[in-house]
Specification:
The chain is α/β, with parallel strands linked by helices. It contains 10 helices and 15 strands. A 7-stranded parallel β-sheet has the order 6-5-4-9-12-14-15, with helices on both faces.
């Protein structure tokens, strides 16, 4: 296979899944580790991928780039469903929860429809609609007001004021990016302020984010990594990122991998208590 053909296949895989590992490319392309790394060097020099430890991911997005809901909904669909199932297991019946806007939290909402007695606070019309269409009659849904963003979030002073008067047991938060230094981020300033209010209102913070969100930085920081009580992600997350996150967040759940001792495969396992005082 010619170098140009290999590189085209690498680009396609990165675009489809958000990232790729060197070991996977060695096997699928039937070439040496050194050949794969040379191809990645070439693609990075052309701005088509960004090398990370053990592989490559899509190039950096601009810090204010805000993909619409429909565009995001087609990315990492299988990973988002696995994350949603695992995150839903962390929610207790008869609790007050928050769900931020986003395609992953919308997927979580579908899996929460069978949990009885929930009071759901959300700044997302699509999330609210999932519960409105549910067959259950014992859910209470509180939809904040505000301006609508491209990601279908309701934001601004009205949303912030509504959230600041509430007290939530658990917040399930979707994010644009996760980074060692920048923490949990969003590209929209007003959405960042609204998400900050949701975080402050919650006793426990559960972040739901697929592996492509790692090393992505949006304009506005929502919270530091240490504020996260549980991060639910997928097996595409690299080993170095797993190590770092395990040291920074309260608990790390890899949704589509068999767990270690205790929980069943695909399960979330024991959840550490909130570290909020």
């Amino acid at each position: 296979m010619l170098a140009a053909q290999r590189q085209a296949l690498i680009i396609e895989q990165v675009r489809r899944s958000g990232g790729v590992r060197v070991t996977e490319l060695v096997e699928s392309l039937d070439v040496s580790d050194m050949t794969v790394r040379r191809d990645l060097d070439t693609l990075e020099a052309r701005g088509l991928v960004r090398k990370v430890h053990g592989g490559a991911v899509a190039p950096h997005r601009h810090s204010t780039e805000e993909p619409g809901f429909e565009a995001n909904s087609t990315r990492q669909e299988a990973e988002k469903q696995a994350i949603a199932r695992a995150a839903a297991r962390l929610v207790e019946p008869d609790s007050a929860i928050g769900l931020s806007a986003g395609t992953t939290t919308c997927a979580v909402a579908h899996h929460l429809c069978d949990v009885p007695g929930l009071t759901v606070v959300t700044n997302c019309l699509r999330v609210a609609d999932v519960f409105y269409r549910s067959a259950r009659s014992d859910h209470t849904v509180v939809l904040t007001g505000g301006f609508r963003t491209p990601s279908d979030a309701l934001v601004g002073p009205l949303a912030v004021a509504a959230v600041r008067s509430l007290h939530l047991d658990t917040l399930l938060l979707g994010v644009h990016g996760m980074d060692d230094r920048a923490g949990l981020t969003t590209p929209n300033l007003m959405e960042g302020e609204t998400d900050q209010a949701l975080v402050e209102a919650a006793r426990k913070l559960v972040v739901v984010a697929d592996h492509t969100k790692w090393a992505t930085v949006g304009l506005s920081t929502i919270a530091p990594l240490e504020r996260c009580d549980v991060l639910v992600t997928d097996s595409g997350l690299g080993e170095e990122a797993r190590r770092l996150l395990s040291e920074r967040v309260g608990g790390l759940v890899i949704a589509d991998e068999p767990a270690g001792d205790g929980p069943a495969p695909g399960g979330a396992g024991p959840v550490p208590p909130s570290r909020r005082g």
